Amino acid sequence: MSTTREKLADELKQHERGAYLRSLTPFDWIWALACVGGGLAAYLQYAEHMNYYEEIILALTVAWLIPQGWHWKQARPFVLIVGALAVLAVNIYPDLNAAQESFLLNYLLSSQAAIMWMCVFFLGATVLYFADLAFSRGGDRAFVGRVATAFTWLGAGAGLLGLLVRWWETYLHGPGMGYFPVSNLYEVFVLLAFTTALIYLYYERRYQTGALGGFVMLVVSASIGFLLWYHFGQEAHHIEPLVPALQSWWMKIHVPTNFVAYGAFGVAAMVGVAYLIRARAHPDSRAAKRLPGFDQMDDLMYKSIALGFAFFTIATILGALWAAEAWGGYWSWDPKETWSLIVWLNYAAWLHMRFTKGWRGTPMAWWALLGLLVTTFCFLGVNIFLSGLHSYGEL
To answer: What pLDDT was estimated at residue 141?
Structure first.
């Protein structure tokens, strides 16, 4: 009997897979071909700079982009446009002096120009989201909300473009200098800003509401504020050689995976803030009428934390493997490692209490917000107040 049930289950899965493939449109297959073509072109162009592990990363990236584009169609033009602009920038950027001589590079496509545009768009999106929430009515609300969403897409695209072009710029600094630009606080704050924005944009589309945009963009704007201070106050935007421990392909997967988790935790925390505001608001107030329902916000908090927890778990495992290669041991109770464990335990407990005790609502919203504070200390506070093997991003 069990064998019969297993066969029926397998047949059902095969039928579902077949139905899903049949539901794909010609544009879906064109997208798949574009991803494969782009990956192949990147390999042919830069194979001499890639080792075996980086070739695997490229292949996995292409394999990941295809179903993502099928599931989230709005991401297709984003990827294609950013990719095309990055290719254009590389082709008109033969040396560092070209950034001053070319109008496109100087004002649009160099890493510093793109990152500054990211800051402008994200700060503008924050204002527009709150303006939409507070003042807009009827058709005006839809227009302001659409502009806010467009600014968020533009900011995310500019941030990603900035890091891609900065990657090329590291090679222009000299032989053996090139590296993936996620090695210091300046670069990872750019990564954090556009990653958080992209995670929010996905959920905005899925839940069909932009009322939470201003809250989430507050986290992004805080990142932008720090980034601008770090750029102009500390002159931290200059490209510097990597320390020996960071000269590893592990950095290309460990750091971005970590920051997907940080971005998801940030989204969850700010949805928690919106939840708490609505819980305290009068039923007839604008906040109560415009913000999503409690069940929807609770579900969004849960999905964001689950996403962040999955990526943080993977990042922690990758970090342990990297540590074994760099320092000879998987775990050394370095301050960063200790606080990473605290972050992991915090969100594991959050998910455990939701699943086993059925906790919902206000306590979980407070917990999500406090969790962001713990995560922020792990990310930034450890670098400022503590020293250890991971002290690569001091202020």
So the answer is: 61
- For the entire predicted model, the pTM comes to 0.91
Average of per-residue pLDDT across 89-118? 92
Place of tokens 């493997």: 321
Dist CA 325 CA 316 (whole Å): 14
The helix, strand and coil proportions of the chain, stated in percent and rounded to the nearest 5, come to 80, 0, 20
Structure-token pair, residue 214: 């201003």
Hunting for tokens 């935790």 — which residue is that?
A: 265
The token pair at 9 is 């289950």
Task: Select, from the ranges 47-51, 118-122, 171-175, the one with the highest average predicted confidence (pLDDT).
Answer: 118-122
Nearest by Cα to 332 from 343, 346, 347, 322: 322
The pLDDT score that the predictor gives to residue 173 is 86
Distance of CA 36 to the CA centre of its chain: 23
Instruction: State the Cα–Cα distance between residues 197 and 156, nearest whole angstrom.
Output: 6
Where does the pLDDT of residue 330 fall: very low under 50, low under 70, confident under 90, or very high at 90 and above? confident
330 close to 323: Cβ distance less than 8 angstroms:
yes
Tell me which DSSP letter residue 246 carries. Answer: G
Tokens of 27: 């544009």
* Percentage of the residues of the chain whose pLDDT score is greater than 70: 91
Q: What are the CB-based long-range contacts (under 8 Å, 24+) for 130-135?
A: 130/214, 132/210, 132/211, 132/213, 132/214, 133/211, 133/214, 133/286, 133/290, 134/286
pLDDT of residue 6: 59
Query: In angstroms, rounded to a whole number, what is the distance separating the alpha carbons of residues 314 and 72?
Result: 23
Cα–Cα dist 75/154, whole Å? 12
User: 298: closest CA among 376, 363, 210, 370?
Assistant: 363
Q: With the C-alpha atoms ordered 81, 142, 307, 16, is the resulting torsion angle positive or negative? A: negative
Query: Can you give the length of the chain in residues?
Result: 395
Domain ranges of the chain: 1-71, 94-385
pLDDT, mean over the chain: 88
